[in-house]
User: What shape does this take?
Amino acid sequence: MTDHESSTGPAARQRIDTSVPHSARIWNYWLGGKDNYPVDEEAGDAYTAVFPGIVTIARSSRAFLGRSIRHLVEEAGVRQFLDVGTGLPTVDNTHEVAQRIAPESRIVYVDNDPLVLAHARVLLTSSKEGATDYVDSSLYEPDLILAEAARTLDLSRPTALILSGILGHVADYDRARVLVRALVDGLPSGSYLCVNDGSRGTDPAYEAAQDGYNETGAVPYFLRPVSQIEAFFEGLELVEPGFACVPPEAPQAPQSSVGAWNVPRPEVRSRSSQ
Assistant: This one.
């Protein structure tokens, strides 16, 4: 999900601009996918020329998502997932990981990108026992997201809220916190919040590459200090290992942390206990 609030709406959602680099398509390129255009490859190559480690971040973040879902299904017993800011389908999407372990799992994907919508059929495959759905909406519409998700999910039961690589697209930090809280408050006690986002203050080359990308005319992504990312979980109980840096996943990666942070499995407390 890469649109600003002002660009949401039916007319904007019908456009696929192949003349401007697009973060979801660039991410797809770094992951080795084919759903991208020359402009995305050029932007991706320009980024890696400044910070080659972004490919490791992309692949490590994807691996983290899979690990988190497996934990939530196997150890926490979660059977419902609300994945906001889905991005382009790739290997081991949320429903594939969850339903491989628990076929009865139910998943709702949310994105307002027309290219993601065009590929939504890949996300809507499901086991016979479970269900998947796609909501064409923006992170800026938490009430609508929850209302539409309730068609497929029973929001009186524990649900995992997935926000992977999306919060940096919200320029106003205070607004981002309000949006996260609105979604969290719509979930019952025993639910979980899973966030993965790039951080500022971990690698100057990473920051330089991202700042350069933000000047290309594409929808920007704002790296935030680690303390600000951690604050998205204020009032929530963290599950081990808690707030941590994503470990490198690619075989060729150096044995050091990368500039993306996550809180894989914090439980959402009920309002009365916060």
